[in-house]
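Lab channel / #folding
Pinned by the channel admin:
"Please post every new chain as: sequence first, then the structure tokens as a reply. Keep commentary short and put observations after the output so the thread stays searchable."

First post following the new format, from NK:
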Amino acid sequence: LVIGAGLPRTGTLSTRAALEQLVGPCYHGATPMVERPDHMQVWMEAMDTGRLDPDQARQVLAEYKAGVDLPFIGWYKELLEIYPSAKVLLTVRDPKKWYKSANFIYSVIITLNYHLPYSWFMS
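Reply from TO:
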């Protein structure tokens, strides 16, 4: 397993594409939100309890060879305990450019969540 420990907006989508070519399927922030909503409960439970259940993590990640972005970055230490032979990949970006990019994308997302028709889905 390859564990991506870099923050979102540090090239994680490009890294995902590269890892999928090099090692196979790669988990990304879009995975539980768009591709595998059935995984969302595992990550929400981990957030609620402050603990990633090793058995649930193994089950959810069974078909993946790598993971980057959210939710991986929040649990990289726990994932290293579950997968001790994993490699860790840290993506970085100039801090000022990262802040500008993150601030923009999260502002857009938050704004959309409060306006129709997107707000219908947030209830």
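NK: Residues 95-113 form the longest helix (19 residues).
TO: also worth noting, Strands lie at 2-4, 26-27, 66-67, 87-89.
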